[in-house]
């Protein structure tokens, strides 16, 4: 089902009206608390009109959009200033993983609920002792009768407080170490063995959490891939993390850059030069993303994360001394400055992206592993 830019633009113009128009520009990293329930409504409205999961194949309820059509969708969505999506993790991470690696029963059970935004997902990978070194995961799961019983702690779990389900990387082979013996489990969040504790951030909001599993349960067949073969599944999920949506994200970056430029003193030549450089870098990022068609996610992540973090610093400089004073709440520039510090950490830190580029792209020797 081919789709054109003008069709997407027209649909958004017709539907992003009334109560939905009030949601323009709301949500996103660092601002997930903004109008969450209303954004959920909007996302269900998108679903009712077939605009969630447009990249999924038609047989799984998507539109099977081509790369160029996906770019058009994400860019038009961002140009319309439509609200940030609430089920990104279900639509863009778990859904494609199940489509590629799930069983027929798992696809039938979960994909329609993701597409309809009836079930929200979170990602249970990181732990206090396992971040960049994800293979150090210690959360364990063992089979008792027909269920996995899970014990351990996850951390930095974005949106766990609103999620119905979590895809959890857990150690299922006792005594195993490293990549071996891990399994990728689908775990319901609303059960007695799961406790979610919000982590309050510098920005004052709490959009990620600690998640404690204390005898939490999930059915035996809710393991994606082979038991003990979860590492490959977890890596497949990460490969989807930085997809085409980066191009939509860049439209938002352009809007932020223009707004920072509007704040800047035209006589401050150093700042003006830095803003000009940021504009050029943004154009280069767009050309790079279009040319490589999302095939080198580590380079894209490294470029955009550093760029956005520097934009937060430029915003502070543009606002001058005023930027250091806080009113009742942070303003949008203070929030941008503080939350963009996280950009170079989540989804793989800058150092880890550089390691990947060095080893997989440049073919340099692998770093020594302890
Ligand atoms: C906003 C945000 C949202 C997140 N959401 C989620 C989520 O939903 N689910 C989830 O599972 N996780 C989530 N995370 C966690 C994120 O994946 C981890 O923070 C990240 O992988 C880094 O792990 P760490 O924090 O344990 O730092 P560490 O791995 O302890 O790293 C600390 C420092 O050491 C550096 N370092 C580590 N190893 C190396 C190396 N081999 N070579 C060079 N330098 C190295 C790192 O780059 C970093 O600077 C989120 C994080 C943030 C900031």
What's the arrangement of strands in the largest beta sheet? 1-4-5-8
What ligands can be seen in this structure?
flavin-adenine dinucleotide
Number of helices: 11
Mean pLDDT: 94
Radius of gyration: 21 Å
Separation, N- and C-terminal Cα atoms: 51 Å
Provide the number of structural domains. Answer: 3
CATH class of the largest domain, named Mainly Alpha
Tally of strands: 8
**Could you state the order of secondary-structure elements as H and E?**
HHHHHEEEEEEEEHHHHHH
Q: What's the CATH topology label of the largest domain?
A: Butyryl-CoA Dehydrogenase, subunit A, domain 3
Instruction: State the CATH architecture of the largest domain.
Output: Up-down Bundle
Strand content: 5-15%
Largest sheet: 4 strands, mixed
Poorly predicted sequence stretches spanning 5 or more consecutive residues: none
Shape descriptor reads globular
In CATH, the homologous superfamily of the largest domain goes by the name Butyryl-CoA Dehydrogenase, subunit A, domain 3
Spell out the blueprint of helices and strands:
Blueprint: H1 5-15, H2 36-48, H3 67-79, H4 88-101, H5 104-115, E1 121-124, E2 140-144, E3 147-158, E4 165-171, E5 182-188, E6 194-199, E7 208-219, E8 223-224, H6 230-241, H7 245-263, H8 269-292, H9 297-319, H10 332-339, H11 350-361
Parallel strand pairs: 1-4
Antiparallel strand pairs: 2-3, 3-7, 4-5, 5-8, 6-7
Helix pairs in contact: 1-3, 3-7, 4-5, 4-6, 7-8, 7-9, 8-9, 9-10, 9-11
The structure holds flavin-adenine dinucleotide.
Residues 122-126, 131-132, 156-158, 208, 342, 345-346, 349, 351-352, 355 line the site of flavin-adenine dinucleotide.
